[in-house]
Each structure stands twice: as C-alpha cells, then as structure tokens.
Write a structure and sequence with these properties.
The structure holds 2 protein chains of 2 kinds. By secondary structure, chain A is of the alpha/beta class. Chain A is built from 9 helices and 10 strands. In chain A, helix 6 links the parallel strand 7 and strand 8. Helices cover about 75% and strands about 0% of the residues of chain B. The chains are: A alpha/beta, B mainly alpha.
Chain lengths: ~250, ~250
C-alpha cells in the first residue's frame, strides 16, 4: 500500500461533541485519505467511539464540521442517507438485523437504499459473503451464528454497499478470544485490498501491523498521531507512553 | 331432563339467529383488531421518529405526539359501551337524527378502542427492540420509515403477537357491548331469542359456550402462529458439512 493517494475523503474540522455538560470531543482535526487505514487507540472514555459515531452522524456533533469529499455533511447539498451508504459502519455489537438471514442482511440494504434489483444485490452480497468465508452460513439467522461469524457477516453487509469508507467501532471487543483472529484476518485482507478504513481498536497488534497511521486519543483530543512505527516505538507524548506501557 | 330438552329445542329452532350473531361477532372482532393494530403501528412509528432539529417540524411532531397521547388516554380511560353510545348518538345528534349504519359503526368503535390499546402495546414493543437494530439500519443509509418497515416492525410484531391475540380475544367478548346500539352480534341475538322463548338461563348458557369455543380456538390458532414465527433453533449448513471443499461457489460476475 505504498502508493496512497493524497485525495482526502473525510475531513474533521474542530469537531466537538458534548452530552449535556459532559464534553466528550473537544477539538478533533483529522483528514482521512483514500485507501488509508487509520487505527484509533486510547483508553475507555477518551472519545474514540464517539468520534466514529459522529462521522456516521449517529451522533450529531455539537461543534465543528465534517466534510465528505469537500462537502459539509450537515449541509443540504448531501443527503444524510446517501452519505451513510457511502460511509459504512461495523459495530462492536454487530447490529445485524435479527429478522433476516445472513444473506438478506447483505441484500436488503442494497435493495432498500441503493435501489438495486434483488438479482444484482444477491450477486454482490454472495460475492462478499464468500470473501469473508461465510458462504456456508448464508441462510442462517443471526441468532444461529457465533460472534465472529456475525461480525464477518456485518463486514460483508458493509462491503455490499460498495462504501468509500468503512468505520470499525471496536469490531473485536465483544468476541471470544478465539474468534478475534477470524475477524482480524478479514480486516487485514480489506486493508490489503485498498479499502479506506478507520478502526477504533484495542488490538495493538492489528494497529501496529496493518494501519498506515495510528491516532492516540485522550480526554477528547487527538494527542498524538503518526505511523505505527512512530507511535509504538518512539512515542513523543508522555500520555501516549503511559498508555502504551499499560497495554503492551 | 327438562333442561337439555329446552336447550335442544332452542338450538334446533333458533340456530340461524345464533349463527348470524356469531358471524357478526367474529367479523367485527377480526376487522376491529386488524384496524386497531394498524392504528397502533402507525402511532408507534410516528411517536418514535427522532425529534427534528427544524423548529417548525419539531412543533408539528410535538403536537402530533400530544394528540396521540390524548387519544390513547381517552379511549383507554372510558368504557367501550359508553364510547359506543357517545359516538353513535353523537353522530346522530350532529347530523339531524341520521344514524350511522350499524355494522360499520360497530367496527369503527371496536377499531378505535383497540387502536388505543395497540398504540401502547406497539410502543412497548418498539422500545424493547435493541437500539443497535436502529443504528444498524441507519448506518447502512435507511430512513426512519425504512428502518421501521423492514427491520423493526417485523421484530416488534413477533414480540407482541401474544398481546395481539389477547386483544383479539378481548374484542370477541367485548363486541357484546355493541348490543346497546343495536348491532346484531351474538349477545343481541341471544337477547332476542330469550325474549321469544323466555328460557333465559338456557339461551345465555348456549352463547356462553359459543363465546368460549371462539376464544379458545383463536388462542390455539395464534399460539400455532407464534411457534411458526419463532423458527427453528438449529441450522443446517448449506452444501456438504462433511466436506468443506464442497461449499457452494458463487457464480462469477458477468
């Protein structure tokens, strides 16, 4: 992934978010380039997930702007639903639709949101379900799948929408240790395939190995960012060192 | 015995009355429950729309929510028998003595009353759905309406099916109060038969059994539906389980 383009897909400018009096994000500035894999690390409550949820507008920012390909996503020029279809999210708790089979989880959103025909949507869905190694389980209901299998279907669902960016909100945190590997494998293959990804994670191995850039967040700020090498081998900030010494 | 003879006589002589009453009772209860459920679903969807940031829309939403709340409280808080009288004679009062046709009036009263209960049942059903289901739906780009129709409501319906069947059973029994406006349902028919035969105990015992058979069979039927909707617990893997390489492969894109 050496030849990264410098085209900015998503840009956060002075992003702020408070819940009542509680300020979670204070001043976040971040540019995400096409094809880039960004890992976001930091302790619980540092605002990592909130930042991600703001990018998908599941949380409405209370200050600052988010730009998608140069357009303010809260302006009238962009439709919220079509923006969300471009910026897919993978959740810690999977959030597969419980009333649908694995296949329909990937097919229905395409039909409903992208107005694809059943035939076309199914072809695309099956392709990605195979990519995440879940073909055999395509007719299973979410309740019949293990955590790792659910998460792989959730990733296939996101991929089926042909997104520009995929946001991962602690995708392995709700999984049994032995299932973490299968999900990380899929994510690594996506990174290799050149998808733009923002990954909030506690998997330091993954962050170090796969990402192009690592962001360390603390207290609602991006404290430090750099290549995995810079962050993990020679962190500059005291706070980063302290955090890494506890998790590594 | 005199008693059984009387019952037998009443049934053989007046069965068309009972059957007609039974048919109308079922018709009103069924349509009333279905329309009531639709009212419940609609109000449930409206009440859970996230409040808009635009001032005008925000106030419209607030007003609609208040209207729904008043509707629910009024119709849950007053007896259906009284509602029937007020609506039926209220209409006549405002239209110079012209009354509503009886059967549609009965269906209307039962529907609007059931709707008030269903509104609360559906709201409870929607609240009980995990927030993640909404977030999952929103995150792929669905609107509130699409998320409701395709993801939330199917799950809500499954969860509230026992309450729906409960409402249906209540409606079968409660249509009897419509006799006050003269709807010819089962209770009304029984009072007619009774006035002709003067066998009060026997007549009402007959419809008592008829009511029970109706409600019991409906309960069983809906229980079967519940079981069917719950689906299987186990899952058979597509393709061959013994041979992993026998997995079905996807056709190449054209």
């Amino acid at each position: 992934m050496e030849n990264k383009s410098t085209q900015t897909v998503v840009e956060l400018c002075h992003l702020e978010k408070s819940f009542g009096d509680h300020e979670v994000l204070k001043d976040i500035n971040l540019s995400v380039h096409k094809g880039e894999v960004i890992s976001v690390i930091g302790s619980s409550g540092s605002g990592k997930s909130t930042m991600l949820r703001c990018i998908n507008l599941l949380e409405i920012p209370t200050g600052g702007k988010i730009y998608y390909e140069g357009t303010d996503i809260e302006s009238k020029e962009i439709k919220l639903t079509s923006y969300r279809a471009k910026v897919e999210m993978v959740f810690q708790q999977f959030n597969l639709f419980n009333n649908m089979t694995a296949l329909d989880n990937c097919v229905k959103p395409q039909m409903i949101v992208l107005k694809r025909t059943r035939e076309e949507a199914e072809r695309i869905a099956l392709e990605y379900i195979e990519k995440v190694g879940m073909s055999a389980y395509r007719n299973a209901k979410p309740s019949q799948l293990s955590g790792g299998q659910k998460q792989r279907i959730a990733i296939a669902r996101a991929l089926s929408m042909n997104p520009d960016v995929i946001l991962f909100d602690e995708p392995t945190s709700a999984l049994d240790p032995e299932m973490v590997g299968e999900v990380l494998e899929v994510m690594k293959s996506l990174a290799k395939a050149g998808y733009t990804m923002i990954v909030v994670t506690h998997e330091m191995g993954f962050a170090r190995e796969v990402s192009d850039r690592v962001i360390f967040m603390d207290g609602g700020y991006i404290v430090e960012e750099g290549t995995p090498e810079e962050i993990f081998s020679s962190p500059k900030m005291e706070r980063t060192k302290e955090f890494l010494s506890r998790v590594l | 015995m005199q008693f059984f003879e009387n019952v037998g006589n009443i049934i053989t002589k007046y069965w068309p009355y009972f059957l007609k009453g039974l048919g109308l009772t079922m018709l009103i209860a069924l349509i009333g429950t279905v329309i009531g459920l639709l009212i419940g679903l609609l109000t449930g969807i409206i009440r859970t729309i996230p409040l808009s940031k635009k001032k005008v829309v925000y106030y419209i939403q607030k007003t609609v929510n208040v209207i729904i709340a008043i509707y629910v409280e009024v119709f849950r808080g007053t007896p259906m028998m009284v509602q029937a009288m007020v609506i039926y004679w209220g209409y006549a009062f405002m239209n110079g003595g012209n009354t509503l046709p009886l059967i549609p009036a009965g269906i209307f009263i039962v529907s609007i009353n059931t709707g008030a209960y269903m509104a609360e049942i559906v709201r409870g059903g929607i609240i009980s759905i995990d927030k993640g289901q909404f977030e999952g739906a929103y995150s792929v780009g669905m609107t509130h309406w699409q998320a409701m129709i395709h993801v939330i409501i199917p799950q809500v319906l499954r969860n509230i099916l026992p309450s729906i069947s409960n409402e249906f059973v209540i409606n079968i029994k409660d249509t009897s109060v419509l006799n006050v406006i003269g709807v010819m349902e089962l209770y009304y028919m029984a009072s007619k038969v009774q006035s002709m035969t003067w066998k009060i105990f026997e007549t009402y015992l007959i419809i008592c059994v008829m009511y029970f058979i109706m409600t019991y069979s409906i309960t069983r039927l809906l229980r079967l539906c519940e079981k069917k909707l719950a689906g299987k617990n186990s899952y058979t893997i597509c393709g061959s389980q013994s041979d992993p390489s026998a997995e079905i492969h996807v056709k190449e894109a054209e």
